[in-house]
Amino acid sequence: MTTRTILTVDDSRTMRDMLRMALASAGFNVVEAVDGEHGLEVLSAHKPDVIITDINMPKLDGFGFIEAVRVDDSHRATPILVLTTESDPAKKERARAAGATGWIVKPFNPDKLVEAIRRVAA
Amino acid sequence: MDELEAIKVTFFQECEELLADLEGGLLAMQDGTSDGETVNAVFRAVHSIKGGAGAFGLDPLVRFAHVFETLLDSVRSGKVDASPDLVALLLRASDVLADHVSAARGMGDVDEALSHAMAAELEAWDGDGGAPAPAAASATASASDDDFDLSAGVAAELDDMDFGFTPMTISVEEQAGADEQAAAGWMVVIQPKSDLYRKANESLLLLRELERLGPIETTVDDSALPDLADMDPEASYLTFKVKLTTDKSEADVREVFEFVDGDCDLTITPLMAGDAPPAPAFEAPALEAAPEPVAAAVAAPEVDVAALISAATAAPAPQPAAAAPVAPPPAPVAMTPAAAAAVAAKPTTAAAPAKAPLEAPGPGQSVIRVDPERIDRLIDLVSELVINQAMIAQRVAEHGIPQSSNLAIGLDELEQLTREIQDSVMAIRAQPVKSVFQRMPRLVREVASMVGKQVRLVMEGEGTEVDKTVIERLSDPITHMLRNAIDHGLENPDERREVGKPVEGVIKLQALHRGGRIVIEVTDDGRGINRPRVQKIAVDKGLIAPDLQLTDEEIDNLIFLPGFSTADKVSDVSGRGVGMDVVRRSVQALGGRISISSRPGHGSTFTLSLPLTLAVLDGMVVEVAGQTLVVPLAAIVESLRPKPEEVRALGPTGAVLAVRDSFVPLVDIGSTMGYRANAPDPTDGVVLLVEGEDGGKAALVADNIQGQRQVVIKSLEANYQQVEGVAAATILGDGRVALILDVDAVINLRRREAPAPKPTEPMIAAE
Amino acid sequence: MIDQTTAVGERRELISFRVGQQEYCVDIMAVREIRGWSPATSLPQSPNYMRGVINLRGAVLPIMDLSSRLGLGSAEPTVRHVIIVVKVQERMMGLLVDAVSDILSITDDLVQPTPDVACDRVRSFVRGIISLEGRMISEISLDRLLPEREALAA
């Protein structure tokens, strides 16, 4: 099986590093973006298999980012997992309405993260 | 685990930045900027701190950040008004949050009582901060599942947030009892809706997940399949019926469908041992092969029609409404061009008012993280290279090699390259003063509340870059200047009212580059220096002669004299054991200058200037009484060989030099520093005309000038201590240590030691 | 810290050296290196026992004339003089002495208290006296040698 590429979009360096650590050790290739706008640029360059995105970000937030991915013909079928907190079901629903495939609850543990990817990745 | 530790370091670095962003945003809100992006950035800062803290299990930090974030979320959604009182509270909360971060880092403690009180205050604000009734109802709405009108009303109320707010009914609880039964497995009927595919979920992946729980037998019902012509390739027409043999609970099965909850109709019924398998069995198509996304529906026509018909017969009747989740509003699948344009336009408009964080790399830009020690090492090496290069140049010059020779030309090029390398390397270590500035708003708040004054701090030039060695030394003098400005510069609120000034005093903290140095200015709009009083104090304390004529500027700068303190009583704030004289001395030790100017009634300005780096210095190498000394080039106005008629005696031992229209006191470096007892005849030596930090001039007498050279600054204090008259040391080309002169201190030393009738005679003797 | 009381019986190593006609020693753990005398750059505004500073591989090392510090008169350094580089409280310092004698291995019960007859200055610099094979060797208390750091918060 070829190595899957995961795009992580998060304005927090800490969170990006955490994701990278978990994903890299699970054998994924990781590309990163610092906000939604940057995410769209990286997306066109890397064609990731799965996207993991934060919601609260400057420039273009997670909702806007997901919507923009879903209207793009070449990425509309790319699974998107949103990073969310337990405390905010409304945000989760809004992310789903925008087109999110699934979600990861922060703080995540690496096993749950990999499991969530497995569940959405073809 | 090293990697995790490294991320933790990153986290705390990021916390520093986020705390600065938080404070910056709150200060902007205080100034009346409460646009969406500012409030969002403030929210995000706390949210990100909480997120990272959660990852590291820093519970007290998470708890406090959570309460803080909750209130900020209400502000963001417009439920709570960003009143000045609230912003003031949020600023204080940001200080407590900063304490929590420090504590989590193992640096300092949190005042538990304060933290609890603050958390309570934040929570209470959420409660009685005038939250509108409909918002309060939202809690009820989300709990009740059928009052659709009400929740729609709430959704309208929250239209800022544009929540797709829909109560969900999930039947897990009702069916939970089934878990208790010893089921042999589960009959799972999945009827995906188009939304499932629009979110890039896949029914085949769901089947694959189910298969992880146990062997499955799948049948597909395509009875809903329309004619090919009418088919929407992205719509869903199939129903999957899966017989799962497993000992897993219903909850485990349901978990497979977590992500598609609401996007498919799902029924799960226990399969009792002995239940006949649904006939005929149907192989799930191509489960191992990666299925084409969205292809499931299209692939269906290949299925044996007869099998499908019998499957349809076996399919259970539609489930009662209770089990069917209310569908959320459909996602905008195809955006209108206008809407798409809006999304595309959003970043530009949102980015415009936002202060782009300096650290954030631009799109596509990558950041390399390097251990600071490696950079320090590199800078040391380049510094040695500079010394070495200078040494070779000196040797070449000594050998009388003509300037036009290839060797000399090559050496010039080498010098230029060396300089460029040095500049580039220094630029790596340069940092914006922001890291120092960001600590100041808190200081100002604390000092202001301590002395009962209202102060607004305005900061400018936070992006001004300066070498790391200087950054570390800025904090103390800035702290003192600010304290002094609040404590002594600004009037009490009553006084301000009387003279018709706004009650709130304004202090401006500004950084800029000027003449190859970094300049920090602290300006207040207070009363200015009371010159008659300052002069009287200086006279009373015996610091200056009573009849001394001083310019306004000279009077202002009397506050830097040792033993001077304008405070009638030592207050908590300025009286922390350090006077401005000590501040001046430590600044001078760094090759810096500090001075004050003021306009009575309008305020004062402290000006601090420091070299951009403490690693290297351009200096003039001179010989004095057999010693080799370096005089900082920045202090030298010009060098000259005095003619006898330019030297005039003044008093019993003093002498001045006539320079154009003015007379400048002559200061023999050798005798002032104690290298020799008596000053030689100045006309035998060389004079360096220097300018002190208060603008006064002096003529330093040396025996000989060796030349101009860049030298590497070595600390004398690292292994010894500060020496009066000496700024630092360096190592010259011959390997010996040479001292770098502290020009101001030399002038002061000579003043003190000269048995002149006036202890502080003005620098400029005559006009 | 070298000045901490060491349990009786625990062995310590000391480097002994000559200052004028007297013998002194310091704990070997404080000694970083021993090097020959090289001319120092004199420090103005400093006590006369501070001989100046030298370049120690890029760092500025202050040199103390131990003879002068102990009140035995200023040394006239020659090429035979030696600098013992010691580390005291994170600071490096060179001690100018006449010559290094040897390395002693002692237990603390060999160290006797400094007799009352000594002057105050000596008493404050000398940790104790070791009697060994008829020699009298005074152990220097390095912490006390340095001039007080100029207190900034005066």
TrEMBL record, chain C:
Record InterPro entries: CheW, CheW-like_dom_sf, CheW-lke_dom
Domain CheW-like: 11-151
A single cellular component GO annotation: cytosol
SUPFAM superfamilies: CheW-like (SSF50341)
CDD domains: CheW (cd00732)
GO BP terms in the entry: chemotaxis; signal transduction
Domain of life: Bacteria
One protein family per Pfam: CheW
PROSITE patterns named in the record: CHEW
UniProt name for this protein: Chemotaxis protein CheW
Organism of this sequence: Caulobacter sp. 73W
